[in-house]
Every structure is written in structure tokens, then in C-alpha cells.
Design goal:
Number of domains: 1
Structural class: alpha+beta
Helix content: 25-40%
Largest sheet: 4 strands, antiparallel
Order of helices and strands: HHEEEHEEEE
Distance between the termini: 68 Å
Strand order of the largest sheet: 4-5-6-7
Radius of gyration: 26 Å
Number of helices: 3
Shape: elongated
Length: 176
């Protein structure tokens, strides 16, 4: 009788390979599963860009009108600029848009089903976040250096200037 040479894998070798592939899949899966946070962060970067562009356009109109050193909340009724052909005006704080939802709705078009404005949590600041991702209590202020936390993430914000010859702060905090 001739001895046949063994061909193929044993059952144990097959099980070991499957276990190794399973371990690799478990370690690699979170990187691919986290795409939703990346997409939401990109969306908030887009909102930040919209806030920045709108603010720059309003500031340009304010410079042309010569009222960039006036404050509407300080009682100066001339601290406004016309923003469209229908004569709608935006209230200004030192040449930049005021921190109210009504003013921002005149100059940016964000779907209210997708985004929510928060103007009460942080003084002089408009916070915009996805409607399905509400940040925790912001009364303590925004995190330093825009570092996200479990409580505060996935927002774009605009902090209006509070003195003449200063610029607003416009930024976003990534989604986690």
C-alpha cells in the first residue's frame, strides 16, 4: 500500500485562522463604524463656514454704511444693515450680526428640522447643533480650545464682539 500525502488543512488549523480573522475584524470595526461622527463633524464645519461667510458679508455692508462701531443692544437704532432686496435688516453689534436666532435666520438658511439654535446657554453666543444631538448644559461656557467632551460636542458657534474694533469668534466643536 502506498501512503497518500495529506492535502488541505486540518480542522484545528481552520479554526485558528477563523479566530485570528475574528480578532482582526473586532479591532478594525470601530474605525469603520465611526463614519457617522465624521460626517456630522463635516456638517458642523459647513455650518461654521456658513456663519463665517454670512458674518463677513454683514460686516462688509456695515463698513460701507459706516456703522461698524455701533451697538444695537447698546441702544443705537442705527446699528442695522439691509441684507436683501425686500428691505430686511439685521441688527448689528459693532459691525457684526447680533446673537439672536431671528437675526441669523435672516442671513443663513439652515433647515429647522435638521438644526437647532441655542441662544440662551452662553452669553453673547449663538450655538447651532444637529436637532438629533442636543448638547448637555452649557451654562458653564464652551470648552477651552474647542476640545469635545461627552457633554459638549457636535456644535458650531458664533460669539459676537462686545467692543468696537473686535471680531466675533466663529468655530465648531467636533462630534464624538
Amino acid at each position: 500500500m502506498k501512503n497518500k500525502a495529506q492535502q488541505g488543512f486540518t480542522l484545528i488549523e481552520l479554526v485558528v485562522v477563523i479566530v485570528i480573522l475574528g480578532i482582526l475584524a473586532v479591532t478594525a470595526a470601530p474605525k469603520f463604524i465611526n463614519l457617522q461622527d465624521d460626517a456630522q463633524t463635516a456638517t458642523m464645519q459647513g455650518v461654521e463656514a456658513a456663519l463665517s461667510s454670512a458674518s463677513a458679508l454683514v460686516h462688509s455692508k456695515s463698513l460701507i454704511a459706516g456703522n461698524d462701531d455701533l451697538s444695537f443692544s447698546g441702544g443705537d437704532a442705527n446699528a442695522t444693515v439691509v441684507v436683501d432686496g425686500a428691505g430686511n435688516t439685521v441688527q448689528l453689534e459693532y459691525g457684526y450680526p447680533d446673537d439672536t436666532e431671528a437675526e441669523w435666520n435672516k442671513i443663513v438658511d439652515l433647515n429647522s428640522n435638521d438644526f437647532t439654535f441655542d441662544v440662551a446657554s452662553v452669553a453673547n453666543t449663538v450655538i447651532i447643533h444637529p436637532a438629533n444631538k442636543i448638547p448637555a448644559d452649557l451654562t458653564g461656557g464652551l470648552p477651552a480650545n474647542d476640545v469635545p467632551s461627552a457633554d459638549v460636542n457636535c456644535i458650531a458657534y458664533y460669539t459676537m464682539p462686545i467692543a468696537a474694533n473686535t471680531e466675533p469668534t466663529i468655530s465648531h466643536i467636533p462630534c464624538i
